[in-house]
Design a protein that fits this description.
about 250 residues, 9 helices, about 35% helix, 8-stranded mixed beta sheet, about 20% strand, Rossmann fold, alpha/beta, globular
Length: about 250
């Protein structure tokens, strides 16, 4: 049963026909893991917390730097040097003290990915390197976990939703070449990760509520200079080394 306080907090959301009390309770029981507490993660995490997702895990091994603050809105100048996951926890709990935020201050690797991701209903990737993207994708496919994937650079962004067995996985769309991701910084307009990160939270909430049409088999592209969106339909790759043997 929804408390009186939560009835007030989520009033505008509960009045939506597709959500109501039952949907809000469903969100409260849900667990989402966000991989990355940078630009994409900031926007995704903020709105997942605001919407009332009951348990939110956030994993990131980095600390807050001055150069992050142009786009990573979870963090503040006073928290420079603090682990990003701790900064994220402070911000999210201040916004919504009724939810649980679980910080993981370490790097997601093969040795810990399966155990960590298995605890959650859904994963949101908020990353800037391909190695970890492919690791998360492979783990989600193996565990049959939905994955909301996004990426940004400069004024551009992209977004897709992966449901194992229902559409292409990340490796179908972006095959793993086995190369190492560059650690060099790349250009980023302040609002680009905000646009894509909010859409990632939007997709995640739809999946948790089982409403609407997810971006499965569709890549949504964003061009910030023209403020335009366009879609590309994508198919499963029959010989995909990650999901090629996944039974529909």
């Amino acid at each position: 049963m929804i408390s009186t306080q939560d009835q007030e907090r989520y009033a505008r959301q509960i009045m939506i026909d597709e959500i109501g009390d039952e949907g809000q309770l469903r969100l409260a029981r849900s667990k989402v893991l966000v991989v990355g507490a940078g630009g994409l993660g900031s926007a995704s995490l903020y709105y997942l917390a605001a919407a009332g997702v009951g348990t939110i895990g956030v994993i990131d091994d980095q600390t807050v730097e001055l150069s992050n603050l142009q786009r990573q809105i979870l963090h503040t100048t006073a928290r420079i040097g603090m682990p990003k996951v701790e900064s994220a926890e402070i911000t999210l709990q201040a916004l919504n003290p009724e939810i649980t935020v679980v910080p993981y201050h370490f790097r997601l690797e093969k040795s810990n990915a399966r155990k960590l991701i298995a605890q959650y209903d859904l994963v949101v990737t908020a990353l800037d390197n391909e190695e970890t993207r492919h690791l998360v994708n492979e783990t989600c496919v193996n565990l049959h976990k939905p994955l909301v994937e996004g990426g940004v650079q400069g004024f551009l962004g992209r977004l897709t939703t992966i449901i194992p067995g229902e559409g292409p996985c990340y490796a179908c769309m972006f095959p793993d070449t086995g190369g190492k991701s560059s650690e060099d910084p790349f250009p980023m307009f302040a609002t680009s990760p905000g646009v894509i990160g909010v859409l990632q939270a939007h997709e995640a909430l739809k999946l948790l509520l089982e409403i609407g049409t997810p971006l499965v088999g569709r890549l949504l592209f964003y061009d910030g200079l023209s403020t335009s969106f366009y879609e590309l339909e994508v198919q499963r790759a029959p010989e995909c080394p990650c999901c090629g043997n996944f039974c529909l």
